[in-house]
Amino acid sequence: MPRLRIQLIGWDRRTLVLTDTPDPDCPRCDGDGGFAYDYGDHEGEYAGTEWDPCTCWDENRHWSLLRFPRIRHRRRGVRDPWSDEPPF
Q1: For the chain, how many helices (H) and strands (E)?
Q2: Which of 19, 65, 66, 85 is the most buried (most CB within 10 A)?
Q3: Domain range list for the chain
Q4: Sheet harboring 4-9: ordered strands across?
Q5: How buried is 79 (Cβ within 10 angstroms: 0-12 exposed, 13-18 middle, 19+ buried)?
Q6: What is the pLDDT of residues 57-70, one digit of tens each?
Q7: What is the pLDDT of residues 12-31, one digit of tens each?
Q8: Residue 62, class by beta-carbon neighbours within 10 Å (0-12 exposed, 13-18 middle, 19+ buried)?
Q9: Stated pTM of the model
Q10: Contact 61, 20 (CB under 8 A)
């Protein structure tokens, strides 16, 4: 049975998509969708966290439902904010 959810993605071109989610009953990842593990540098200090996705979930699978139109902002000429001149 598919485990789907609605999500809003994109920065410059906003899109409403239907995405896959991890299997909540997966015995390998316990529904987390993957495995996180910390690693260190050559001196043994913390250097970051890696993420390995589980096979119960494809984090790149999504279907576009609705694309939102771009809102174009009108550009105004460069104006000195300290000027006493009116903007017209």
Answers
A1: 0, 5
A2: 19
A3: 4-67
A4: 4-9, 15-20, 62-67
A5: exposed
A6: 888 888 899 998 87
A7: 788 999 988 888 899 999 88
A8: middle
A9: 0.53
A10: yes
